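Friendly challenge for the regulars: who can give me the structure tokens for this chain first? No prize, just bragging rights.
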Amino acid sequence: MVFGLGDKRALACTLFGTGALVFLGLDVAWWALKKYVLRRNQLPVNEVLVFNELGEECVREHYENDRRGLDDECSNRFCRKRTVRRITDEIDRAAYSVDIAIFLFTSGTIKSAILRALTRSVKVRLISDRMLPVDVHIYELYLCGVPMRGTQPIRTAIMHHKFIVVDALSRVQEILEERPRYLRPPFLPTLITGSPNWTSQGFGGNWESCIISRNIELVDKFQSEFSRLWKMLEVTKAP
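First reply, four minutes later:
Bragging rights claimed.
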């Protein structure tokens, strides 16, 4: 985790760990966060994930590791399992919010990470192409109370986005204003976006690419578009 309570090495750590965010203007908080991320650079600002035909070559190695009780690691740099885990790692870091816009979603691994976020009281919202949750994983999230909206039947064009925004600064501030918290955990705004749908084919059968970005301006642009869509699709929210 980039930010931590009690870490006196950085002003931003104190700023966000103690909850001063609600007392400062958004521009000031934004500046402090950007400076901290770029200065500390404990995690890469941008990270590229690649899915290709080599992703399944380590299946046997994972099987043997599991059978012998060894760490679930392998030597395959394109390992599908490890690459998908990079996505779920970012969801597991979420402290306040996870906003999702996805066309197809059948990945049980990502669904489990979202369910873990819910147990931490993280605010999760989901926009899909369909008004009603027809996929079993989306439907399970719906039953767990995740607010959902879709573009059909009010639009003929499809909602083809595939992105996740974790703990965008504007969204965190919105959540804190709605329900102030005495203890405010540290957070790191993150964007996950790319070509694959969250399916077995997208993660294991196609040539696809995805980026994980902690570029503050980029995170904000995607959060802004999600918020605009969320407001526009008010009429399609699930009952």
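Residues 1-24 have pLDDT under 50 and may be disordered. The radius of gyration is 19 Å. Your move, everyone else.
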